[in-house]
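FAQ

Q: What does a record look like?
A: Structure on top, sequence underneath. For example:
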């Protein structure tokens, strides 16, 4: 997938079928929009493309970032998108709906078709809706395809619902709406060394950046991609009250990989969350904490041994 970070014409000259949206989380609804553009492009000898944007600094839409930019790109590319335009929001925020169609869809994509959800808005101050998109695209020979909202639990799938599910520990609901396991790829950093020196369970530390959504504190069954393969693991997110009960204790994300040893500092391994196991709590001693970590690791190994997860 070719990624463009400026308002520049894409390199494929065939014309594009363009998916439109922010695609935070690349959830089931986004996948329907992106997949529609890919299928149409295949059937009409066009380039499958997507237009989205990046917000400045640590800003996000309606809450913390669900996926890192890299994970977002990986998931979009896996759906078949080949031309991906992601300029900063400031580059087009002041465009009128008419200018958005002309400068983005016509000049950047040579669009022949566009795909979006029925709640899509565009142009300065969200002045354009799907009805106006139809009216502006039709004279330019651009077909407009409005994709119905994906449903889960008799309600529309949304990034807001996914954030709420993650924050409440409803991982099964979040993963169902995402259409793939929730995952992080934050940089591995040095921790306090408690896992190695005092518990006998060395951990991979991938602490959350300020702009990222932080899931519910607790213990999770996870798997981590290291050295070209997936390893069953157990991950704890929280303040570690057993080893640090101070009021200003930092929230950490620590993963124990029972069958792996190696130096991962500075790397960005993908960590997938598959099952919420239990809340974080303060134990009477370190042995009880170590026992929980090892039990979670055993359960993770058993869980993945019974799965057909690719």
């Amino acid at each position: 997938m070719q990624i463009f970070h400026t308002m520049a014409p894409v390199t494929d000259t065939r014309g594009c079928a363009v998916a439109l949206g922010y695609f935070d989380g690349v959830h089931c609804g986004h996948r329907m929009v992106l997949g529609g553009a890919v299928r149409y492009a295949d059937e009409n000898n066009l380039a499958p493309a997507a237009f989205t944007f990046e917000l400045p600094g640590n800003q996000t839409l309606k809450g913390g970032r669900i996926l890192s930019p890299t994970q977002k790109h990986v998931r979009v590319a896996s759906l078949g998108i080949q031309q991906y335009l992601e300029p900063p929001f400031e580059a087009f925020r002041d465009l009128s709906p008419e200018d958005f169609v002309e400068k983005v869809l016509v000049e950047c994509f040579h669009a022949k078709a566009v795909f979006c959800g029925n709640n899509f808005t565009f142009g300065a101050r969200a002045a354009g809706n799907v009805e106006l998109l139809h009216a502006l695209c039709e004279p330019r020979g651009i077909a407009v395809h409005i994709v119905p909202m994906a449903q889960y639990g008799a309600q529309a799938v949304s990034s807001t619902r996914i954030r709420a599910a993650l924050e409440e520990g409803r991982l099964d609901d979040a993963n169902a709406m995402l259409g793939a396991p929730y995952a992080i790829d934050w940089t591995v950093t040095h921790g306090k060394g408690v896992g190695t020196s005092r518990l006998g369970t060395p951990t991979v530390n991938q602490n959350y950046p300020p702009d990222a959504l932080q899931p519910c504190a607790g213990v999770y069954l996870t798997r981590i991609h290291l050295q070209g393969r997936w390893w069953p693991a157990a991950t704890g997110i929280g303040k570690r009250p057993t080893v640090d009960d101070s009021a200003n204790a930092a929230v950490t994300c620590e993963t124990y990989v029972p069958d792996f040893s190696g130096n991962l500092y500075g790397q960005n391994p993908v960590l997938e969350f598959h099952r919420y196991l239990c809340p974080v709590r303060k134990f009477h001693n370190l042995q009880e904490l170590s026992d929980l970590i090892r039990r979670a690791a055993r359960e993770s190994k058993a869980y993945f041994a019974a799965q057909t997860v690719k």
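Q: Is there anything notable about this one?
A: Confidence is low (pLDDT under 50) at residues 195-199.
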